[in-house]
């Protein structure tokens, strides 16, 4: 059992009560949720930190981009801009935020990528700018109840499931675990390959005490590292790791399986790299020789910053791609559930 500071209990009780009141106001209609004509999928979590939201959004894009004109919308956490923005070539991570820019960098014009703190105002702007849009994926919007989504996907990690956590500031929950009731499906992310049926049954039973929502287990799979500079195609067996994500434990473990890790630069989530950071990374690579920088996809787009070219132009930098892995049966179930929501909305003349 994790230890909790007893001095934080009063603050957690107050926070819990405030969020309960807020949710009740939405549930009773005292606070209004707006529904839109275009079907919306909400991806989110109950806790702070990395639950794999961006890989899940990318998983859904892969699932539906051939059948629909997909748009993604997030607040663009960590960006230096405000208001509504559509991703375009001249904008970078500082204008769009790390994750939206990563999605745009990966999918380009195949999807519409937008950011906006006020999603109720941003969605009409997406539809005005991109009128062919017929499916919107809301990233990190489980608590953003001003928009009434059509299908809610709640993510929780295998390593720290929401039913073992506490509300802030005791734990990392943004709201009471009972908020999981709003989910149409709960996906346990980062599930190890060797997770047996017994432990999965325990997870399902723990979640069932809160809600009867369908539970799906999904793992992550790393792909082959690729160069962020097309001119640097030669890879090395020795690496200097660089990451600025919520939890880099799995990233480090994966690197250690296949590479000789010489040094690790582990920054905080959404880290804004400085020239000083880049100088240290560059010095490390030159010191060790015959090695490369291995980083996450999210960090790789920030390392492409023009301000860093002088330091990184001659250093091989490779990104380690990550994808959601889901059993075919579960993937089919998820797709059919979402398709039924899309069809139902179309049937009632809303799209």
UniProtKB/TrEMBL annotation:
Pathway: Glycolipid biosynthesis; lipid IV(A) biosynthesis; lipid IV(A) from (3R)-3-hydroxytetradecanoyl-[acyl-carrier-protein] and UDP-N-acetyl-alpha-D-glucosamine: step 6/6. InterPro entries: LpxK (IPR003758), P-loop_NTPase (IPR027417). Keywords: ATP-binding, Kinase, Lipid A biosynthesis, Lipid biosynthesis, Lipid metabolism, Nucleotide-binding, Transferase. Its EC number is 2.7.1.130. It is an enzyme of class 2 (transferase). It catalyses: a lipid A disaccharide + ATP = a lipid IVA + ADP + H(+). It comes from the Bacteria. One of its GO terms (molecular function) is lipid-A 4'-kinase activity. Transmembrane segments: none annotated. ATP binds at residues 47-54. Belongs to the LpxK family. NCBIfam families: lpxK. HAMAP family: LpxK. Transfers the gamma-phosphate of ATP to the 4'-position of a tetraacyldisaccharide 1-phosphate intermediate (termed DS-1-P) to form tetraacyldisaccharide 1,4'-bis-phosphate (lipid IVA). This is Tetraacyldisaccharide 4'-kinase. It comes from Shivajiella indica. The gene is lpxK.
